[in-house]
Amino acid sequence: MIIDINPILKGEKTELEIGFDLEITEELDDIRFPDTFPVKGKVKDMAGYITLKLEADVKYTAACARCLVPITEQKSIVFEKTVVTNSIELQNEDNDDYITANDGYIDADEALIEQIVLELPLRHLCKEDCKGLCPVCGIDLNTDTCSCETKEADPRFDVLRKLLEDNKKN
Length: 170
Known about the structure:
Structural class: alpha+beta
Number of strands: 7
């Protein structure tokens, strides 16, 4: 969404209400956004200090990290940045605290999508006590049981195990 903040820069207004629908079509780290979602917010001028604040309730789908069952979640995102014009030179161009208004326009989509990705959890679980999949046969342990032997000895301890066995023999 391109936001025109020229009325604020010209002193005609001190606040602009914003509302638009955001659509994320690309899949980000196995997270899909099936629907567009509304974004609302405002650009506010406080005596030359301009802020952009956006809020969105993001609905997304992902696979459970343990059992791979698809899950749908919703997360509220708040995005707040200080707006600077392209006439101001920043000491650190990569500073994430600012968003640049080029010729009085802010392109908020890329920065908002980045904020959404940063605020989503790294692991998604269908439930906190998800048992996951059997590492041997692959059966979903939440719905079925199996008789596979899942206890594997750590090969790094083979030398110690051999010493203990030799010690028991003596």
